[in-house]
């Protein structure tokens, strides 16, 4: 008999909304203090400068408000866990939108406007609303979980590129970690490898013999931030193994062919 289909993970929408708002506030405060020299540094993401990366983060919030301002779609086409695999096709369009978002307006004003629009839009809409999005129609509840990925990943990008120490909201990091772990399990279904990302997630993946009790024969373990970097292509499997930030035991515990999940 095949294993029972696992129910999709659910998220506390009040906590997700609070985490997104708080994380955007942390980034806004740090961006407002960036020096001209920091703004011109390379972001590490293609040809983007730190200024363009910062503008993109403002666009993340502003585009959420824009999506909620459009008429709702009828039916959701995409779930949160499927979202990571749909992002690659939009990289060019998103990059162009980020450059347009900068538009000569100072970043502090850009962030202030985006924060106000996002807050107003979130207050006026329930999680069941279906957004008409470039990437595919999604419920607001699911789309907000994907925003934790955007904000956590780009907070880390800004910290590394500009030498910052922007804090990461625990709830945002938890949701981001769990979503990307579940995406791995969706990409490589099975039960032969257990991936542990304490304290936030444990998933089983990869076809093969399924363990039923005791210690699994194939185990991967890492910390949340390293996992996020692996899943989004900010670092590589071999480098993190060498640095002992990833431990992998068992003949099936090599995830290098499955990563990154999104670029």
Give an overview of the whole structure.
There is one protein chain. The protein is α+β, with helices and mostly antiparallel strands and 263 residues long. The protein is built from nine helices and six strands, in the order H-H-H-H-H-E-E-H-H-E-E-E-H-H-E. It has helices at 13-31, 36-39, 50-69, 91-102, 107-123, 140-162, 170-187, 224-231, 237-242, and strands spanning 130-131, 138-139, 193-197, 201-205, 219-222, 246-249. The longest helix is centred in the middle third of the chain and has 23 residues, at 140-162.
List strands and helices in order, with pairings.
Layout: H1 13-31, H2 36-39, H3 50-69, H4 91-102, H5 107-123, E1 130-131, E2 138-139, H6 140-162, H7 170-187, E3 193-197, E4 201-205, E5 219-222, H8 224-231, H9 237-242, E6 246-249
Parallel strand pairs: 3-5
Antiparallel strand pairs: 1-2, 3-4, 5-6
Shape: globular
User: What can be said about the biggest beta sheet?
Assistant: 4 strands, mixed
Total beta strand runs: 6
Proportion of residues in extended strands: 5-15%
Give a quick set of tags describing it:
4-stranded mixed beta sheet, two-stranded antiparallel sheet, 6 strands, globular
Briefly, what is this?
With 263 residues, the chain is α+β, with helices and mostly antiparallel strands. 48% of the residues lie in helices and 8% in strands.
